[in-house]
UniProtKB/TrEMBL annotation:
The keyword Transport does not apply. Residues 6-133 form the Response regulatory domain. This is Response regulator. InterPro entries: CheY-like_superfamily (IPR011006), Sig_transdc_resp-reg_receiver (IPR001789), TCS_response_regulator (IPR052893). Keywords: Phosphoprotein. It comes from Uliginosibacterium sediminicola. SUPFAM superfamilies: CheY-like. PANTHER family: RESPONSE REGULATOR RCP1-RELATED, TWO-COMPONENT SYSTEM REGULATORY PROTEIN.
Length: 145
């Protein structure tokens, strides 16, 4: 059964954000997509802190997390997600341009569920993001958070 929980897209590049949203639409993924444009904003959504203090924490179906982010990078965001019992089991997919072996190793060491390099080709990017959404929202079984 498809999840009705939102997707948290943590992406600072406006072009990649627009392509991701287009990919979800193309693949008929109707879940709300919440965009955080840096690591601080992502953590504020997840923990109802900072500018979102007093609001309900966000418990997305999946987090698509870029690594190269302003203010707090993606690896630190992942570290904080896994360190908190409320978010420790949330699926986190690293979606980044980084091909650095060190980034891949560290992402998995910190508990990433998957590490995907963003394709450069427009159509490949659309298909990759669409397939990610379809898998994590319809096929994956969620742990209770």
């Amino acid at each position: 059964m498809p999840s009705d929980r939102p997707i948290l897209l943590v992406e600072d590049n406006p072009d990649d954000e627009a392509l991701s949203l287009r990919a979800f639409n193309k693949h008929r993924i109707r879940n709300e997509v919440i965009v955080a444009r840096d690591g601080v904003e992502a953590l504020n959504y997840l923990f109802a802190s900072g500018s979102r203090a007093g609001q309900a924490p966000l418990m997305p179906a999946v987090i698509l997390l870029d690594l190269k982010l302003p203010r707090i990078d993606g690896l630190e965001v992942l570290r904080r997600i896994r360190a908190d019992a409320r978010t420790a089991l949330l699926p986190v997919v690293i979606l980044t341009t980084s091909r650095e072996a060190q980034d891949i190793q560290e992402a998995y060491r910190l508990g990433a569920n998957s590490y995907i390099r963003k394709p450069v080709d427009f159509e490949q990017f659309l298909d990759t993001v669409g397939q990610l959404g379809a898998y994590w929202l319809t096929l994956n079984e969620f742990a209770q958070t």
